[in-house]
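Structure (tokenized):
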């Protein structure tokens, strides 16, 4: 399995994997594939990595800029992340998260936030941070990981693509 930045022509596979992974999940808005498409078309897909196995894409992760008011720069939102249902539970999702964070860190990012399950994301160092407020999510599922420097406080806003319907 290799992890690489997406290239032209990967879009349809990313869409299919994202739709299949989120299908029927109670916490899903079923808009995740459209969010990725809109981030791409609005030049807000900071980092888009695919996991490839024997020439087939089996997973994908997206990172996009977030704003944290009153003032913080260099923070990104993780997600959506998806692994093809028949390949879940074999380390692909973790590898995508780790590689993405590593690349953000090397690029000088300040930190990363996400809305997700602490049982999964805690292993990468994400912690629930009450000082960071994201109105789209129950507080216990909103987490942050500083990548350089200190944790910041404030209100987090994702790219408008996350309001896609
Ligand atoms: C979440 C997801 C990307 C993880 O990818 P993966 O390749 O299955 O993950 P890994 O094999 O690296 O890690 C598996 C671990 O994650 C846990 N896990 C997988 N999906 C999880 C979920 N939705 N919530 C909490 N934990 C989850 C597994 O229980 C396992 O835990 P363990 O190592 O303690 O046994 C994948 O399961 C998926 O696509 N799920 C559907 C879409 C989704 O929920 N995306 C994330 C939204 S926040």
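Design, position by position:
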């Amino acid at each position: 399995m290799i992890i690489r930045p997406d290239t032209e022509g990967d879009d349809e596979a990313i869409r299919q994997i994202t739709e299949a992974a989120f299908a029927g999940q109670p916490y899903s808005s079923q808009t995740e594939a459209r969010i990725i498409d809109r981030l791409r078309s609005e030049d807000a897909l900071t980092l888009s990595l695919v996991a490839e196995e024997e020439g087939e894409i089996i997973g994908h992760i997206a990172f996009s800029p977030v704003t944290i008011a009153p003032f913080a720069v260099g923070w990104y939102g993780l997600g959506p992340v998806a692994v093809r249902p028949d390949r879940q539970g074999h380390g692909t999702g973790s590898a995508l998260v780790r590689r993405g964070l590593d690349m953000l860190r090397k690029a000088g990012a300040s930190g990363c936030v996400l809305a997700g399950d602490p049982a999964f994301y805690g292993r990468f160092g994400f912690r629930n941070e009450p000082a960071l407020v994201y109105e789209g999510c129950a507080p216990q599922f909103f987490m942050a990981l500083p990548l350089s420097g200190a944790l910041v406080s404030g209100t987090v806003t994702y790219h408008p693509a996350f309001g896609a319907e």
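Reviewer-requested clarification: The chain has one domain: 2-163. Residues 21-22, 25, 79, 81-83, 88-94, 116-117, 119-120 surround coenzyme A (CB under 6 Å).
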